[in-house]
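Per-residue structure
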Amino acid sequence: MSRNGTSQARVSPTGPGPDVIVFGQIARDLVLVVDAVPVASRSADVYQRRELLGGNGANQAVGLAQLGLRPALAGVVGEDQVGQRLLTQAGQDRVDVSAVARRPGVRTALIVDIVDATGQWRYLEDIPAGMLLTEADVIAVRHLFLAGRWVSVQLQQPPAAALAAATLAHRAGGKVALDGAPDEGCRDALLGVADVVRADAREAGLLAGSPVTTVAEAEKAAAELLRQGPSLVALAVEDAGNLVAWPDGCVFLPLPDSPVVDTTGAGDAFVAGLITALAQDGGPQRAARLAAAAAGATVGHPGGRPALTPKAVQDQLTMLAGSTRR
C-alpha cells in the first residue's frame, strides 16, 4: 500500500513463506438478515441470505490477502464436504491453507449470524471441541515461523495453543499480534512476547480489570499494557471508537458516521489493517488509520467477510481525515 493508503500492491517478500500466519477459527458462516428477530412460536422472513467462508481466523486472513500480504491460515476443519469447500474458497482468496488441520470424525464448525434491521446481531454457534487448535497443531507448523514475519494469535483459541504459537514465533524472531484478552493463567507469558495487542470493548475491560468506557480509561489501560511488553496496543471504547497507543504517543479514531449493517468481522479487519501497515513499516499512526478504515469498510454489509477494495479503504480513510484525536 502506498503511503496514502490508496494502492494495494503486494509487499515484496524477503524470502519464501508467508508474510503472516493467522491462528484462529475457520467456520461456515450462514448470514440471515431479517427485519426483526421473532419471539417464541413466531416466524420471520429472511430477506438476505449469505453462505460464506467465515470464522475470525479466516476473516482476518482474507482481509490480509485483500490488503496485499501473503497470509497463511492455521485452524481446523473436518474431513467433510463443508471443510473442503471452505479450504477451496480460502485458496481462491489467496490464503495459504497448508497449515490447516483436518480432523477426522468431527463436523466443521458452523456459525449462524442473524442480523436485524437495526444492525444488531445474534450468533448461533456449532463449534465442536475438535474444531479448536491444540498445542500439537501449532508445533506441527513450526517450520512456518520465520524471522521478521508476523503471527496473529486469536485468543478465543485454547490457552495452550495460543501460548505455543506466540512463544514459537517470538523465539524464531517473528512479530506477534494478540487479538483478544489473554487467559489469566498465561497472561504474563503472552504479553511478554507480544508486539501488538488488540482488544474489543469487552476484552479491553478484562485486560484493564474494569470496564473501559472513556478515552481516558483506554489511555490508562493501554499505558499499563505497554509497560508489560507490547510496543503497540489498540483498545476499543464502546460506541465511541478505537484508541491506538505506543510508547511515544497515542491516537483516538472515532467511529465513522456511516451506516452500520453488521459489526461482525470489524475487529478481524481492524487487526488485518494494523498488521499490514506495520509489516510495511508504516508506523503506528498509519497502522491506526488503516486499521480503522478496514473495520469501517467491513460493517457496511452483512457477515464478517471483508471486502477491502482500494476504493472501500480509501473512502474510509477520507472519512477519517480530520476526525482523528491525538
Observations:
- Residues 1-13 have pLDDT under 50 and may be disordered.
- The first strand starts at residue 20 and ends at 23.
